[in-house]
Amino acid sequence: MKRKKRLIFTVLAAAAALFSVTGCSVSTAEPEAAGTNPPAAGETAPAGTEQQKAEQTEFKFGKIDIPGKDGALCGAPIYIAYENGYFAEEGFDVTLISADFETRKIGLNNGTIPIVNGDFQFFPSIENGINVKVVDGLHEGCIKFAVRPDSDISTVEDLKGKKIGVDEIGGTPHQVASLWLENAGISADPADGEVTFLPYSDGNLEFEALASGEIDVAALWDPLGSIKEKAGEVKIIFDLGTDPFFKGKFCCFLYASEKVLNDNPEEVAALLRAYRKAQEWIYENPEGAVKKIISGNYASIEDEELAVELIKSYGYPSAAQHGEQWDETVEENVRYFVNGLSEIGYLESDPEQFAADIYQKVDVGAY
After folding, report:
1. Measured between alpha carbons, how far is residue 8 from residues 106, 170, 205, 269 in Å?
2. Contact present, 140 and 249 (Cβ < 8 Å)
3. Distance CA 218, CA 287 (A)
4. Full DSSP string of 71-126
5. How far is CA 172 from each of CA 24, 68, 209, rounded to the nearest angstrom?
6. What are phi and psi of 63, to 5 degrees?
């Protein structure tokens, strides 16, 4: 019999508003290198760059903001779509912005942000009335849980009574940790007192808290966990890309504003084409993608070899994969996580109907 956990989402909503920090962030520092944002008025991009080409493009859909200054390596499709000019090719003058979970929800709901990436963290918000649809899958993996090298914590069962650091309450690492705990019979509801979640606005602060004993576990986006593991400073007890429950499933989906979907479905289709071009380019050019990400200061990593290894592990699809029942795969992943969240009482809706309601197939070739 599934346990009712609706209280946790009331707590999460309040906590997210109180502790709002950069969603998916691994550092409070925003990328400032060339390519992160379009040049200001009167400035000229270096000759021959994709950004210069973009400036010469007539933007069919005009200016839009996309959350994409988060420091997470797995945000690669956003960075590459921007750097390679795919957004511009599809008619968008894009500004990459920082936005926490609450800001993303508000922007999606009113249409000022047309699309974001995120995992199943949005599902309860959709059930509670936010007007958002899942429209595509983005990648696998990308979150790890780290402990001190001398820690006796090695399994999920060892987390009872422990303190877990996350980037924000209600964000993806927090939601992943909650599902991992609940599937093991440990309540993630703060009211039950079985675990404590503490938010940190910077991944490095989270590691300092781990080293000092302020927290027992650090739940983080790549690349910081992998960097620290390679340096021998932590050991990893959970990897989203290899854990049996999550392996082979999307870590992140693409969510579109229902308002934009209804008012201008052509815009959403064009955005998905840009993302898919980026995914396919990353699949073919993982080393090139890493060079662009590092040179543009999009993610906090200097180890190119490690970054390439991580990029490859995220399962970005090829052009052939996009053509092989891709939409059915996305829909199946949505059902999988809806059922998982329903089983532990995080969703109250009928799972089959809810999964059908929150996913919308977009024909990217119809426009």
Report:
1. 20, 10, 25, 35
2. yes
3. 28
4. --GGGHHHHHHHHTTHHHHTTEEEEEE---HHHHHHHHHHTSS-EEEE-GGGHHHH
5. 7, 15, 20
6. -85, 135
State CA 185 to chain mean position distance: 26
Taking the C-alpha atoms of residue 75 and residue 255, their distance in angstroms, rounded to an integer, is 14
Angle (CA) 352 262 88, round 5°: 110
User: Do the domains at 10-22+142-239 and 50-140+249-358 have one common CATH topology?
Assistant: yes
**Rounded average pLDDT over 330-344:** 94
- Which residue carries 């346990």 as its tokens? 3
Lowest mean pLDDT among 11-20, 111-120, 198-207, 292-301: 11-20
Q: Which CATH architecture has domain 10-22+142-239?
A: 3-Layer(aba) Sandwich (3.40)
Written as six digits, the tokens of 259 are 């308002």
Q: Tens digit of pLDDT for each residue in 263-304?
A: 999 999 999 999 999 999 999 999 999 999 999 999 888 999
Burial of 204 (0-12, 13-18, 19+ CB in 10 A): middle
CATH architecture of 50-140+249-358: 3-Layer(aba) Sandwich (3.40)
77, 275 in Cβ contact below 8 A? Answer: yes
Q: Residue 16's CB: how many other CB atoms inside 10 A?
A: 23
Beta strands in the chain (DSSP E): 62-67, 92-97, 115-118, 132-140, 143-147, 163-166, 196-199, 217-221, 235-239, 250-257
Residue 79 vs residues 70, 95, 161, 279, 300: alpha-carbon distances, Å: 10, 11, 39, 11, 13
- DSSP H or E run through 212: helix 203-212
DSSP secondary structure letters along 282-303: HHH-HHHHHHHHHHTT-SS---
Q: Which two tokens stand for residue 282?
A: 């990353």
Q: Is 328 left (phi over 0), alpha (psi -120 to 50) or beta?
A: alpha
pLDDT value of position 142 = 87
Domain boundaries, the chain: 10-22+142-239, 50-140+249-358
